[in-house]
Amino acid sequence: MRIETSRNTERIGSVTINDVQKVLELDSGRAKELPVEEKIAVQKIEQDVIKDIEKKMAIVVPIKDEKVKLFEGVISGIPHECPIIVLSNSRRRRVDHFKMERDTLNQFCHFTGRQALIIHQKDPSLAQALEEAGYPDLLAEDGRVREGKAEGMLVSMLIAMMMKKQYVGFIDADNYFPGAVWEYAKCYASGFAMTKSPYTMVRILWHYKPKMSRGVYFKKWGRVSQVINKCLNSLISAKTGFESEIIKTGNAGEHAMTLKLARELPYASGYAVEPQELISILEMYGGILPPDRTKAAKHGVEICQIETRNPHFHEEKGWRHRQGMLSLGLGAIYYSPLCGGETKKVILGELRQQEAVGQEEEPAQPRLYPPLKQIDLQKFAEIMQEHMSSYSLPEEKE
Ligand code: GDD
Ligand code: MG
User: What is the pLDDT, as a whole number, of residue 395?
Assistant: First the structure.
């Protein structure tokens, strides 16, 4: 893969945020030396380097009641070396969607010799493992894991840690283009190859997100992304005193992290999770709040934003869904101790304009989960292992 070198980097405390780097070539050819001048402007990440990282990178597919055809396409796009973790919160009544997903994955693994795992978010053994390992925060009153994409992501990160992987990457299950999925995974691996810190995050910026209205229109920015980026940049600008537009991937669902970083961060519930990751990184390592003396602060945290070539085309879930996502994402920014009066004003203006909150109201505060490092991973793994035969594929036992 050939990717632009980042031309602009902002440093906030121990956090380095690289400006968007575009993919120039999906396939950059055989390994050979590049002329020196080319090396400065672009980076060539060799196939073997990518493959080595993929082996250590679990790809998580969170899924809730998506079309099984789409899910099938998504898993077909995940590079062969990456182990797959499917975290499903799909319906099990009348039509058992989870079973359909499981059968699809099973068949895929059978014919491709893949390593994969599928777990239902509401599986009682999962809840038991979390409870006994000292991380009951994820459990609802009914004793099962709470609803939400973030909740599924947190469980998957624990599974990836249990599998002793080094990296974890997330890819939504409702993507229409397997080629885009493939590219996301390649970009994650390339991002990790380009960055130096063991505490790194790679976030994807879509080249285009096509919309259907009297023909196809290749839209660059979604409204939710635009507003979330604007508010995160407003927060950064207010703190540094220099106007910034560095954040272009504030709510990127497609993103990846080293597990070293993943275990350190507090996470927000549901769709607030992605903006909160950036907020958590800035709060912990941005040098604005009392300094953090962990290893991550010493090494520095690197955030890489990569713009892909494939357009992102996924299920359209409607205006109300987007409005909910916006409120949650902005709520994560609004309640950060880093968020000053100016940024709060911008957030309220946006939410009121979209009628997501009333004129006198404030956004709801998303639930915050403590860092995953506080769990007794060995205990969690022991309990999960007991049930592993029912999660792992293809050796399925009912
Ligand atoms: N396990 C699990 N549990 N998965 C869920 C849940 C849940 O409760 N809710 C949704 N998902 C899955 C969906 O099935 C899908 O695969 C993925 O999470 C993303 O959900 P969507 O509902 O498709 O979200 P979106 O497309 O509107 O938003 C996506 O992109 C945004 C950036 O534009 C998400 O990835 C957002 O998190 C992201 O901010
Ligand atoms: Mg979607």
Answer: 45
Instruction: Report the nearest-CA residue for atom 5 of ligand 1.
Output: 149
Pairing outcome for strands 167-170 and 116-120: unpaired
Q: How far apart are CA 198 and CA 166, in angstroms?
A: 9
H helices present in 208-250, as ranges? 223-240
Compute φ and ψ for 311, nearest 5 degrees: -70, 155
Q: Which has more confidence, 390 or 397?
A: 390
What is the spatial distance between Cα 226 and Cα 345, in angstroms, rounded to a whole number? 16
Beta bridge partners of 22: 307
Out of 135-144, 189-198, 307-316, pick the least confident.
307-316
pTM higher than the cut 0.90: yes
Interatomic CA distance for residues 306 and 6, integer angstroms: 9
Counting atoms of ligand 1 from 1, which one is nearest the CA of 66?
Answer: 14
**Is residue 317 in contact with ligand 1, taking CB distance under 6 Å?**
yes
Q: Where are the beta strands (DSSP E) in 64-145?
A: 84-88, 116-120
Tokens 């957030």 — which residue?
A: 347
Check residue 57 and report its DSSP letter: E
